[in-house]
Design brief:
- The protein is mainly beta and 190 residues long.
- The chain has a single domain, classed as Porin (Beta Barrel).
- Helices cover 11% and strands 60% of the residues.
- It has an eight-stranded antiparallel barrel.
- The longest helix has 17 residues.
- The chain starts with a helix and ends with a strand.
Amino acid sequence: MTIVSAALISAGSFISAAQGQNEISVYMGVMNAEYTSVDINRRYNYYRDLYALYEPNYDIGCYPTLTIDYNRRVLSWMSAGVQANWALMHGTGRYVMESAPETSFRQHMVAVLPQAKFYIPGPKRFRPYAKVGLGIGFSLGDQVVGKPVTFAWDIAPIGFEWGSNTVYAIFEASFGNVITGMRFGIGYRF
């Protein structure tokens, strides 16, 4: 009986110590994209003028993004976790040469990134943070613009959690090849 009591007390202590250590967040965002060209690697910008005559330039505009985060607190000022991202891109391609027809594309981009989140000291109801994630991204669709599998990165130099320690609103600015823009959402800490 004492062994069972000791086990229950230990389990209760562990559970109470772990409360508030996990967090899950859902973000929505809008990313503004400029243009890209099929099969042109952006590293080689000096080829763009030559290839622009034969490959379409896509006018993409803004597109929606969705991010789901899971983090576990590892230190008082840091948590580690994973983020999953989805974005829908679509656009119309216009060739520079007048006689070439217009083309269009629609593709889904999915990325999975392990991440680290760093908390900046501040008031309890308004908690600033920064985070960085590195992982892999996939482009899916009938006509994929760019490479189908890429290295994915996402940096949020500043973000804010506002609300109670359990449920809170989130606003962050982020950039990278996953999203460059603003994200907002809701989080739950348990």
